[in-house]
Write a structure and sequence with these properties.
Two copies of one chain form a homodimer. With about 325 residues, chain A is an alpha/beta fold. Chain A folds into two domains: about 10-175, Alpha/Beta hydrolase fold, catalytic domain (Rossmann fold); about 180-320, 3-Layer(aba) Sandwich (Rossmann fold), CATH 3.40.50.1820. Helices cover about 25% and strands about 20% of the residues of chain A. Chain A has helices at about 85-90, 115-120, 135-140, 160-165, 180-195, 205-215, 235-240, 265-280, 310-320; strands at about 10-25, 40-55, 65, 95-100, 200-205, 220-225, 250, 285-290. In chain A, the strands form two sheets. Chain A has a four-stranded mixed sheet. The longest helix of chain A has 16 residues, at about 265-280. Mean pLDDT of chain A is about 85; it is low at about 330-333. Chains A and B meet through strand 1, strand 2, strand 3, helix 1 and strand 4 of A and strand 1, strand 2, strand 3, helix 1 and strand 4 of B.
């Protein structure tokens, strides 16, 4: 891939956070397939902020960049033809830069309740159901604790930052697209076509996307790290033909034993079965339940919890031991 | 603000792009206030990809990170409590990292047509109108050229990348929020409360947001760079009390003379009038029409066109000459 920066970028810090936001009630969260979910509360009006803090700073105030209508903070990033955008150019000129997504836009999410309500009230089947999780539903499905507002005694979740976490939850608006989530699998295949062979890390809903991506691009997936995503169904035929040739790590947090719902026993046991089948076929596959490794208190969102870099080190170690080294085709031209 | 990275990040490259995507017709683009817009074509099913290429790379394939349901690529960025996320941690471990937003989610946009259609057909006023621009409308409103599909002879737009550009256009879903765009102004105020005094750069729709932000936080805006955004209305009283104390740059591309619509004569003339009023009150205000400076062929999206860094240099020079230097309060703790 061609380089976009016109010079090296040395950052003292970079990242993203939310500002603003409030908690409102919704009677219309919508669940996939099953219609309306239980009433609850969602975070709305939060604003996503991405920032770059250069190592070599000037003595001026930082710059906040705010996009226009029908755009997002992408406005200030890499140009459409792959050249450097203003965000990093200003950062390399010594400015701290903050670029936002308007409230209700992009990664700031929006409130789908009025749409879902109109759909439910009028039985207008032409309206897509737009899934959003309530805070209450997320607390249980993502296993933050045993009941809404209560963390596990050994919780690794950054408890004081729970509102920042809920700010990152957005409506699953892919239901407005023909073919829904299949578009993401197709786009992932297009991504590998562009960047070359890659290790693919998928989370939760995207577990099955990882399997479908292997089916589309078996030679471009060098390893699949599947964090609490589904590992089923897989056929004996495709295990033999493709899946057993690709290293798989199925990684699970704590407190899923006995848990109902999407991220509990059924999905985890399915992953154990797939890992066993892959190993029986000679594949390099690992099922890792963190408490079995002495790491306790992690939820479904283990990549952002207090011990997230310790778990990242486990993943990095697994990659080093299981993924064959090769010069990546994505080397910069 | 507390640092989130646990070590310096040295990047050979970073940025964002889209993969996938297709052009579909819509009869339901919706315009703000005026109801349905003209039928046309929009880009859907594109996937936003953000990437980090470290200067010190290992010899393994890059890592692609794919979030789960009701999440976005934010999953892999800074944790809710402000610590380093996996994207940069893996990059600092030597991996090239790519993190996506599912199609139909976050910065990948979505297709609001079924929602707008149901609203239009049933006259169900409870459904929000979700503005999206057609490609045809964008071509004229953002002044890419004189008619759809034709660029200006002196165009600075990266013409071969026009599909990448259209991929970044998303529905204005803030219409699903109570108070709509006012939430973004409130969130910008919360952002300045968090990071301290800042130079604020606004584009297009956000021009009025910049003025409203000054009204809310007059001491925290050190300068306003208003790129083809509205500069009106402003009262004589607020010019005297606050606006004339804050440096303003109103920056305009080419081909707006005689242009109708949102980004033409009316808005530009309003900015000239505001700049004149600010200067009469002793303020540091600049109206800059790029062709007057010998820079021709720029559209409404000048920050991403072929000469974008040349224009950035003009803005950087203006800042150096007009914005008072001071130690920013956002220095890392």
């Amino acid at each position: 891939m061609r380089r976009s920066l016109s010079g090296q970028l040395v950052l003292e810090d970079e990242g993203s956070f939310f500002v603003g936001g409030e908690v409102v009630a919704t009677d219309y969260p919508m669940l996939p397939n099953t219609g309306l979910g239980a009433p609850g509360h969602i975070t709305v009006n939060q604003m996503y902020v991405r920032y770059w803090i250069p190592a070599a700073k000037n003595d001026l105030a930082p710059v906040v960049m705010v996009h226009g209508s029908v755009h997002t903070g992408k406005t200030w990033e890499t140009t459409p033809d792959g050249r450097e955008g203003w965000a990093t150019y200003f950062a390399r000129s010594g400015f701290s830069v903050y670029a936002v997504d308007h409230c209700g836009r992009g990664r700031s999410g929006f409130n789908p309740s009025p749409i879902n309500q109109a759909r439910a009230d009028s039985h207008a089947a032409s309206l897509p159901a737009i899934q959003i999780t309530t805070r209450e539903g997320a607390w249980l499905n993502f296993r933050l604790g045993p009941s809404y507002g209560r963390f596990w005694p050994d919780s690794q979740f950054p408890e004081d930052a729970v509102d920042q976490y809920f700010s990152q939850l957005v409506p699953n608006a892919e239901s407005t697209l023909v073919d829904g989530g299949a578009n993401t699998v197709n786009a992932l295949a297009a991504l590998l076509d562009r960047i070359g062979p890659a290790i693919v890390m998928v989370h939760s809903q995207s577990g099955s996307y990882g399997l479908d991506l292997i089916r589309k691009r078996p030679k471009l997936v060098k390893g699949l790290i599947n964090i609490e995503g589904s590992c089923t169904p897989v056929s004996a035929q495709e295990i033999e033909a493709t899946l057993a040739k690709i290293p798989l790590l199925s990684l699970w947090g704590d407190h899923s034993i006995g848990a109902a719902g999407l991220n509990g026993d059924e999905r985890r046991n399915g992953c154990m079965a797939t890992v066993a089948a892959l190993r029986a076929a000679g594949g390099r596959a690992t099922f890792a339940l963190l408490p079995d490794l002495g790491i306790r208190g992690n939820s479904h969102m283990l990549m952002l919890e207090k011990n997230n870099l310790r778990i990242a080190d486990l993943v990095l170690e697994w990659i080093g031991e299981n993924v064959p080294k090769n010069r990546a085709k994505e080397a910069l031209i």
